[in-house]
Design the sequence.
């Protein structure tokens, strides 16, 4: 059983990865591969929607950082729609939240 669901929504080379569930040691590689694939396939911007993310551990945090760095190295824009709860708190207390371009809401074309 997968503990995370990653849904891709695309519009005009802007890709939103909607995460639902738990981003942890078991599921983090799925996010890293999805972001790397989108960068290599010509995405112009990747947005991670964390609003339905229930849990994130240090491996999940590493996957978020790897996605961000991969985008920067590929010249792909990167942003996050923050969620609430434990996942957001982890991003705040580690200082990772400060480095993210936050998307307050998704546009109608990608929602």
Sequence:
């Amino acid at each position: 059983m997968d503990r995370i669901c990653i849904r891709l929504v695309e519009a005009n080379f802007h890709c939103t990865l909607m995460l639902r569930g738990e981003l942890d040691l078991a599921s983090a590689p799925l996010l890293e591969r999805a972001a790397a694939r989108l960068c290599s396939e010509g995405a112009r911007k990747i947005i991670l929607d964390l609003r339905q993310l229930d849990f994130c551990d240090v491996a999940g945090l590493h996957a978020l950082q790897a996605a961000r760095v991969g985008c920067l190295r590929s010249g792909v824009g990167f942003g996050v729609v923050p969620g609430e709860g434990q996942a957001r708190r982890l991003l705040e207390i580690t200082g990772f939240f400060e480095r993210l371009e936050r998307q307050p809401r998704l546009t109608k074309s990608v929602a």
